[in-house]
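Action item from last meeting closed. Structure (269 res):
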């Protein structure tokens, strides 16, 4: 713990020391602040999380590939797609939540945030840098997982469906929404509670509409219906990022729908 504290403090001090104190271009200085913090967060997150998660993912895909050998070609492809997309979704969500939740409390606990705030770094820049670094960690993990899935699909199916490279970015947007929520929760709650609440949001966000329809049909009290409607409005519609069916059933996705979904993620973050 002490060695990690010293390493992080040294990295921040060394990087921020090079910043000009009288920089005229505030926009460039802001980007540099965020970039430095994000890069350090990415390195730290990769050392903690990604490689262990990717090893688990690789083992899951190998075991799944052994089971797929017993089925015919069409069933193989559907099962492979379901297995791969579910694994990418679950693992990327866990990476986003875990890295986002642990990054800020870890800095406070180790007191590495003190020398950073003492520098010409605003608090919102520090938070945005931590978030950017967490999402970069997710992106690295998803790139490796997508490559592994594409390799298995090429082996079993004979080609890689180009729709994969449309579906995966929207899974990344879903992870980005979860990461933003997790980081926000970590600013005023303990990391275990923030982690639990983030996963709860992930679960409820993926069943948001059917759960709302079921509850409003069952409840009679106007107060309860109003409370459920308020919760419905606050929860992110994470199911809208799930485009797996388009990959499995070769469905055509309209550009307008994709743009609307991407804009929804940006606005929610």
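Sequence:
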């Amino acid at each position: 713990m002490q060695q990690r504290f010293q390493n992080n403090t040294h990295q921040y001090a060394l990087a921020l020391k090079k910043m000009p104190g009288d920089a005229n271009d505030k926009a460039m200085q802001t980007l540099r602040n965020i970039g430095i913090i994000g890069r350090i967060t990415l390195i730290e997150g990769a050392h903690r999380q990604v490689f262990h998660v990717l090893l688990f993912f690789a083992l899951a895909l190998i075991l799944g590939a052994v089971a797929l050998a017993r089925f015919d070609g069409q069933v193989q492809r559907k099962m492979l797609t379901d297995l791969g997309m579910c694994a990418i979704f679950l693992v990327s969500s866990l990476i986003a939540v875990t890295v986002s939740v642990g990054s800020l409390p870890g800095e406070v606990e180790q007191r590495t945030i003190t020398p950073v705030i003492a520098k010409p770094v605003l608090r919102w820049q520090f938070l945005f840098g931590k978030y950017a670094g967490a999402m970069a960690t997710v992106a690295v993990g998803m790139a490796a997982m997508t490559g592994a899935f594409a390799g298995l699909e090429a082996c079993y199916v004979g080609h890689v469906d180009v729709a994969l490279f449309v579906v995966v970015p929207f899974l990344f947007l879903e992870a980005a929404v979860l990461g933003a929520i997790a980081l926000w929760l970590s600013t005023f709650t303990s990391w275990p509670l923030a982690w639990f609440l983030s996963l709860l949001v992930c679960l409820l966000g993926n069943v948001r509409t059917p759960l709302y329809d079921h509850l409003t049909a069952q409840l009679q009290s106007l107060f309860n219906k109003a409370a459920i409607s308020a919760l419905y409005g606050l929860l992110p519609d994470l199911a809208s990022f799930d485009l797996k069916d388009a990959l499995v059933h070769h469905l055509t996705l309209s550009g307008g729908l994709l743009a609307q979904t991407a804009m929804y993620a940006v606005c929610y973050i």
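Note appended to the action item: Residues 2-206+237-268 form one domain.
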